[in-house]
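Database export, one record per block. Field names are fixed; values are copied verbatim from the stored entry.
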Amino acid sequence: MSDSILHECGIALIRLRKPLSFYIDKYGPTFAINKMYILMEKQHNRGQDGAGIANIKIDQKPGYRFFSRYRSVKSQPVAHLFKKIGKKYIKAQKVGKEKSKTKTG
């Protein structure tokens, strides 16, 4: 996966043009990640050997993580990436629930 981006590489991008709360209220909290999975699976089905995903948080406060990326060259790279992402999502949900209990209790 250290090769440079050439004409063989596919790039999928999702840009949320409305506030995140709009998409969460209308489609649920996994709207963007579900769309990204579909886009990446289509790219993989066209012959891509590996996959990677990155996200950038705009307007993040200084000192906080604003960028993350994951890459995979496994036999099923898209599924491998989204398995990792799913684990992170579940962990974040647990942390969020614990924080909300601490604030209310």
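Remark 1: The CA atoms of residues 39 and 57 lie 20 Å apart.
Remark 2: The mean pLDDT is 82.
End of record.
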